[in-house]
Amino acid sequence: QNPTINTKPRHFHILPFFLVTKMNYYVGKVIKNFKEFYNDINTATLTGAIDVVVVRQKDDSLLCSPFHVRFGKLGVLRAREKVVDIEINGEPIDIHMELGENGEGLFVDYLRLNSEQLASLNLKPGPNEAIFSVTTAYQGTTRCMCIIYLWQYDDKIVVSDIDGTITKSDVLGQLLPYVGKDWAQSGVAPLFTKIFANGYKFLYLSARAIGQSKLTRDYLKSVKQDKVCLPDGPLLLSPTSLISAFHREVIEKKPEVFKIECLEDIKKLFPSNPFFAGFGNKINDVCAYQTVGIPRTRIFTINHDGILRVELSNTYKSSYTNLSDVVDQMFPPIRTRTTSNEYSQFIYWREPIHDLSPDDLSLLNTKQNVTKAKTK
């Protein structure tokens, strides 16, 4: 008797093969990106630069934040000369840095340039690309870059933390971008874009180490929601090593120490307090923002569920998306116009900005809910 022939198609080989192929793809992607992550944080290859803020004063003089530049040990051990060459917007400049023993770049033992030196950089208003390079005998030229922002003495700044504030999680926010996972808080890009459009400058602040500058900068550029990206702005990180930054934030749990020092440094570049509002996710952020003079009515904290609170109010609960609906009330537009060549700068004619009380915030929240109920 002939055995029964099974004429049903055999699919059981296809599914395992598909799963294995898919798994191999993701595993390969994780390994590839983890290598990039390791190279970013490996102290032997630690290279990075922190963005610089230059502020034009009323008298046309210039002040700047520190130039923090660091080259990994493997990139500078055999440097022909202890000289760091600099290009601004693709053009070499006559100012050079000296390379320290630990790979840090210094302007003859200083981290800043004076007004005359800053003027020689021929910076344009807004972002300017700076490239720092060191030539080694066997590895050629090692480069790192940062952005130098030229701002005005009367600009208003909104400060935003990154991990847990722009990302949904402190830790996962650092790792998931490497596997292509979108882990940004819902509505953060549209809200920040609207605030930016109203005339405010953005400053991104993180206790991450300088060696993660490229990684962090690339992540901020990658965030895109509702066809808009995060607004451009300087990225300020810790100039210390990864281990020191990790110990301060995770072990000591005192990232506000660095953040306060960093914000105070920026504050000194302006004749009056430039900080208008701050976004964070921890009490440490609140502490830092309050210390540098940001009103509690403009300190916003968000949790991993996307619930946004104002520090002064225990009843106000919102979200980035809801705050976008009342952005003109919370962040009044700043009118601008170009003046005569006598000043050759942008002078801002500002409307008076008033702090909102907890009752005002609750009223705004109520109006939001009523408006949404009517549209349903």
From TrEMBL:
Residues 157-311 form the LNS2/PITP domain. GO terms for molecular function: phosphatidate phosphatase activity; transcription coactivator activity. This is Phosphatidate phosphatase LPIN2. GO terms for cellular component: nucleus. PANTHER family: LIPIN (PTHR12181), PHOSPHATIDATE PHOSPHATASE (PTHR12181:SF12). SUPFAM superfamilies: HAD-like (SSF56784). Signal peptide: none annotated. GO terms for biological process: cellular response to insulin stimulus; fatty acid catabolic process; positive regulation of transcription by RNA polymerase II; triglyceride biosynthetic process. InterPro entries: HAD-like_sf, LIPIN, LNS2, LNS2/PITP. The gene is LPIN2. It comes from the Eukaryota. It holds the Pfam family LNS2.
